[in-house]
Amino acid sequence: MTTSPFDLSGKLALVTGGGTGLGLGIAEAFIQAGARVVITGRRLEVLQDACKQLGPMANCQVNDVADLASIPDLVQTVQQQSGPIDILVNNAGINLKKHTLEVTDAEFQAIIQTNLVGLFALTREVAKGMVERRAGSIIMITSMAAMYGLPLVTAYSASKSAVLGMTRVLASDLSPHGVRVNAIAPGFIQSPMLLKALETDPERKRKVTGRTPLGGFGQPSDIGYAAVYLASEAARFVTGINLPIDGGNSIGF
């Protein structure tokens, strides 16, 4: 029987922020494709509930990517317990919806620390093993906020725009060593973070759906299936891209 180029059997994926929302959708899709998954996040109970939902192919580790000192130990623990990391999905992130003039330095720094600095530190540590084995796929999660000027999310937009730039440089640095680096730019995907952002802002919600040609919101599984593609042999010649999964929002009027 011919193996599907989308088959991830035998692979181990590390998904940050994997307990809810997009991260959980990505973990589910990886498991459907045959991979084992380790999810991380800050809340043990949330992670344990997610692992029960995901089944025996999933494991979890409590970790806050903003805590840089914890990252080498996290990578070592995962690899000792589960084996080499074949796929890394940098999904963990925080947002802040606030007018630019009211954002404090501390608030701005907190967003950058989690969404950018911690992401880089984890990527560097995981990539060391991937480069040594000359194989691996790293997937960043960017945002529509990295593609056009969404109001009231200065810090978030800055972090995601930086991640997009980093994706391209990392692809240039790591791809000669067999490690592909790509990004997914989710559009407006149904998640606790999105619903919280839109529930108090009906005008913003109208704008979102109005400029999405396919209408409505996407589902976490839409991001999950895109991640499966980028992590799989089907994307063996794909690196350095930013793939919008947005129902056409980034080209809508």
From TrEMBL:
Q: Which UniProt keywords apply?
A: Membrane, Oxidoreductase, Transmembrane, Transmembrane helix
**Which SMART domains has this protein been placed in?**
PKS_KR (SM00822)
Q: Per the record's keyword annotation, is Transmembrane helix included, yes or no?
A: yes
Entry superkingdom: Bacteria
Q: What SUPFAM superfamilies would the database entry show? A: NAD(P)-binding Rossmann-fold domains
User: Which InterPro entries does the record cross-reference, listed alphabetically?
Assistant: KR_dom, NAD(P)-bd_dom_sf, Sc_DH/Rdtase_CS, SDR_fam
Instruction: State which residue ranges cross the membrane.
Output: 138-159
Q: Name one GO molecular function term.
A: glucose 1-dehydrogenase [NAD(P)+] activity
> Domain Ketoreductase: where?
11-187
Q: What is its EC number?
A: 1.1.1.47
- UniProt similarity note: Belongs to the short-chain dehydrogenases/reductases (SDR) family.
* PANTHER family per UniProt: 3-OXOACYL-[ACYL-CARRIER-PROTEIN] REDUCTASE FABG, SHORT-CHAIN DEHYDROGENASES/REDUCTASES FAMILY MEMBER
Protein's UniProt name = Glucose 1-dehydrogenase
